[in-house]
Amino acid sequence: MLAVNLRSGGNRNTLDCLVRRCRDHDPSVIAFSEFRANATGARLREAMIAAGYPHQGGSFEHAGNGVLIASTVAFPYVVNPFGLSGDEYPNAVVEARFGEFAIYAVYLPGQDRKRPHLRCLIAAAARANERNASAVAIGDFNSGRNATDIEINLGTQRLRDEFSTADLYAELERHWTEAWLYLHPNATEFSWYPFRTDRSVVQRNGWRLDKAFVSRALLPRLRSAEYDHGFRTEGLTDHSALIVDLDVERVS
After folding, report:
1. d(CA 118, CA 108)
2. Every domain of the chain and the residues it spans
3. pLDDT at 184
């Protein structure tokens, strides 16, 4: 599966290139964060159908930032599976089911606004572990580890910046495993940099925001997790894409 942040709903001028780059990875499921139900969003959905992803679910009734899931196979889905209220950014999570396999596609809002979502994901992770269920949460979490997921903090004893929800993020890590970090325990990469029109400028203020968490039952079937930084460096969006390979059977 692949996850990529569209940056404010996507750019109509680069949308076709973004779709082609997604298709080149040949994922069975794609999770788009910062999807918007507007004209650009409609064009993206049409382009995904043409690319072989006719089955879609997401926050289609919401004008602001939300989530789109596109798949090669049909699936039931639920927007706001945790039942958050209208002032708690309920379109930040979409749950899709592929047989017994669950995907929580996320675009968590900034700062403390994501605390309800993280609490709900922690509860969902605990339940999945109790049932030995296969599940993954994937997308833009806008949170992480302060010491390693914020570039300006590397090699410093005093944090120069912090995630306001690092405490809940750490609790989620105690239930589920963050896929990329599990497979690259000694590596450092960053998936988001502030957008620049001049991409030749060297940037040292990266953040690793785009991640996938897998349940304990699913962890033995994790094969790979890699970033495609070309999405960002080629100006298709301001985020790198995350590609996660799981040994799960496709469900039609």
Report:
1. 8
2. 2-246
3. 98
